[in-house]
Design goal:
Helix content: 40-55%
Order of helices and strands: EHEHEHEHEHEHEHHHHHHHHHHHHH
Number of strands: 7
Shape: globular
Radius of gyration: 25 Å
Strand order of the largest sheet: 3-2-1-4-5-6-7
Distance between the termini: 87 Å
Largest sheet: 7 strands, mixed
Length: 478
């Protein structure tokens, strides 16, 4: 009997996706390039027998086991491996077959692969999937991009069934667009995630270093925050992480984890893309730099022995400090999302995608890592104003940001005076101050550029299209 869908790649995420589809009554064929006896066979025997899952030792057998048009989901490490798989698999496929890359591929690679497959009559989809191992098993957020008519006919029902659903039954999957847009939106999701995570980590570090709270006390703060406007998956798991004990030492586990962060590249890609599009995204970029700084642990240890920080010990009301911190975290979180959606808005124009920003916000309500209570408000902001330039300008968040300012500034000031590293929250405030300034210092910058490079400038009393150049040193042409 032919399987409805095939899954290539039996890592943790691949196994979870296969079980997700099979548990929804879809027949599934699975294949892993290596370790058939060690990996594929045990997976089928232990987990696949209760479902309609078949495993195959060769790629040819795997491909031939699928009903036509064949639908193959790739869940493998992004990069060169995808190209190698396509090179090997496409000769075994027929025109009209479908390949969906559900890994974290770079969107420009997806564009190239989509174009190459199209020449051979194969439909290639770049599908963003967020939710980790648990989400892949129980229902992730899914962001599909590719040929819409093919998607609607052959993939929509499958992905809608696989995806997470809200408590109201709304599906967290929606067609994004063509030409790499699905992976692009996933990339921005991850960029926002970088910012969100670093903001939370800075709040933890501030409470630990400046306010001298215990892990148990901090866990309670995060638990309370999760009951209000900061309700989110990341805040929830943070409150639980802080209470987890290490089985080896009996200490709080968080205290025995090395302060050296890893990354897989999507935050970096988001920051580079922001620069390419000319979009200021310092909250997201600074969260990437924070991971880079954490990675040079030995250098930091050496520097800590050379420099003694001249700091002021914090003194004041703990209640007020925590209220200020909550405002700083919430405002910075808004800006992380605002910057991510600014990138999406510009990308929609750059790549001719016509992205629906409000609908994208709804995709992230369940299943994914950044799922948060206020995503509904982002949807409302874009529904209310279709031409909204930034969430900062929306009626939905204006009052929140205005109210948060005092506590935000107090928190940043305390962190600086206390010598506590808080780069993302600080840069979020600086971005806010820049974005809301009638006049910045770029007039002097343009004067400097015109002096040394004759780059010209505009005048406040000139027309929009007029440009000027000044002979700053009184030099005369010969």
């Amino acid at each position: 009997m032919k399987s409805f869908v095939g899954l290539y790649g039996l890592g943790v995420m691949g196994q979870s996706l296969a079980l997700n589809m099979a548990s929804k009554s879809y027949s599934v064929s699975v294949f892993n390039k290596f370790d058939y006896e060690r990996l594929t066979v045990p997976f089928i025997e232990q987990k696949g027998k209760k479902f309609k899952i078949q495993g195959f030792p060769t790629l040819k057998e795997f491909v031939n086991s699928l009903e036509r048009p064949r639908k193959v989901i790739l869940m493998v490490t992004a990069g060169k491996a995808i190209d190698e798989i396509l090179e090997e698999m496409i000769p075994l496929l027929d025109k009209g077959d479908i390949v969906a890359d559900c890994g974290n591929s770079y969107f420009k690679d997806t564009m190239r692969r989509e174009a190459d497959c199209e020449k051979k009559g194969i439909y290639f989809f770049g599908v963003g999937v967020s939710g980790g191992e648990k989400g892949a098993l129980t229902g992730p957020s899914i962001m599909p991009g590719g040929n819409k008519s093919v998607y609607d006919k052959y993939l929509k029902d499958l992905f809608d069934t696989m995806a997470a659903h809200t408590t109201k039954g709304e599906v967290c999957c929606n067609y994004i667009g063509e030409n790499g847009s699905g992976h692009y939106v996933k990339m921005i999701h991850n960029g926002i995630e970088y910012g969100d995570i670093q903001i939370i980590c800075e709040a933890y570090y501030f409470m630990k270093e400046a306010l001298k709270l215990s892990n148990k006390e901090m866990a309670e703060v995060f638990r309370k925050w999760n009951q209000g406007r900061l309700n989110s998956y990341l805040i929830e798991i943070t409150s639980k992480i802080l209470l987890k004990k290490d089985e080896k030492t009996g200490k709080d586990l968080v205290d025995v984890i090395l302060d050296k962060a890893g990354q897989k590249g999507t935050g970096e890609w988001t920051s580079i893309e922001a620069l390419h599009l000319g979009v200021a995204a310092p909250t997201i970029a600074e969260s990437v730099f924070a991971r880079c700084l954490s990675a040079i642990k030995k250098e930091r240890m050496e520097a800590s022995l050379i420099y003694t920080k001249q700091v002021q010990q914090w003194q004041g009301s703990l209640k007020e400090a925590l209220e200020d911190l909550e405002n700083a975290v919430y405002a910075s979180k808004i800006l992380s999302y605002a910057q991510g959606f600014d990138i999406l808005r510009q990308a929609s124009r750059e790549y001719h995608w016509n992205l629906s920003l409000g609908d994208i916000a709804l995709l992230w309500r369940e299943g994914c890592i950044i799922r948060a209570k206020f995503l509904e408000r982002i949807k409302h902001a874009y529904s209310k104003n279709k031409s909204l330039k930034s969430l900062i300008l929306s009626d939905e968040f204006k009052e929140d940001l205005n109210t948060a300012q005092r506590g935000w500034r107090n928190t940043v000031s305390t962190a600086i005076q206390s010598g506590v590293y808080m780069s993302t929250i600080t840069n979020s405030l600086q971005y806010f101050d820049g974005y809301t300034s009638k006049r910045l210092m770029a007039n002097l910058l343009q004067a400097q550029r015109d002096w040394f490079g004759a780059h010209t400038y505009q005048r406040i009393d000139g027309s929009e299209n007029e440009i000027f150049h000044t002979d700053w040193e009184g030099m005369q042409e010969c």
